[in-house]
Every structure is written in structure tokens, then in C-alpha cells.
Amino acid sequence: MNKMSLEQRNDRPAIMKAVRQHEFGGPEVLRYEDAPMPEIKKGEVLVKVKAVGLNPPDWYLRDGYKMLPPEWQPQVPFPIILGTDISGVIVEARPDVF
After folding, report:
1. What is the pTM of this model?
2. Where are the beta strands (DSSP E) in the chain?
């Protein structure tokens, strides 16, 4: 793998497609839409996602953590993208990653 090809590029698109959530609720609150491409920070990589897994913690977040007492429910900065179990290809990396 060529290290130079993974460093930050200026030619990547500014928009990506994502399933995002703008409010708490059932599956109907999930929207497939355009979203800004994230900017990678020190120590990070950008992954073109090919598959994602959603787990019970994602369902609880989508629903608003209703099982928790109100004082334990975290503030959520909408919109959010659920799912942290991903599979894909690294398309960009900060130089300090390697």
C-alpha cells in the first residue's frame, strides 16, 4: 500500500450519503440523505464504509435511552449517524497514523 496515497487529499468530495437521525423515535426517524464528509483529525483515518452493524446500544440511542432515568439520559448532538461496527476501505489517513 502506497503511504502517499493515504495521506490527506484535497480532491475528495465534500458530501457523502449517510443514514442520519435528527430526533429520537423508531425506525421512521432514520433518513438516507446527503451529509458533510467528516474532516479527519490527528491520529484518524477516513473509511469508505461497505457494511455497518447496528447493535442494541444503537437501538437504545435511536429511541432516546427511555429505559434510563431522565437524569442519566445523555444530551445528543443531532444529527447523528448510528453504528460504530463498520467494515470498509481506508481512503485517507493523517500522516501521524503510520
Report:
1. 0.80
2. 15-21, 30-36, 45-53, 85-93
